[in-house]
Amino acid sequence: MATDYDASRRTEDEEKEESREARRLTSGEQDKTSGKVDEDETEVAESYELPGADLSHETLSIEVMPKQTDEFTCTSCFLVQHESRRSSPGADVCADCA
Ligand SMILES: [Zn+2]
After folding, report:
1. Which end of the chain has fewer surrounding CB within 10 Å, N or C?
2. pTM score, whole prediction
């Protein structure tokens, strides 16, 4: 019974052919896999970077623009404005909000 089962399931020739086909499939799949891996990496990178990159860019855009000595923060719109846009001396309100 067992011998018949093994013989009907797989012969040596079939095993050799299968191994050859497997090697062909594997070699062929490697090219496909490399493309799939790139796509996966891109997808993973995008899904990973989207939330983090936005936050980091937001933080950077804020940190890159420190308030200069000739600038003030408007107490109304909270934007950093140049001294020339101060509505009146001593008042931290820009010309737009005055
Ligand atoms: Zn303002």
Report:
1. N
2. 0.34
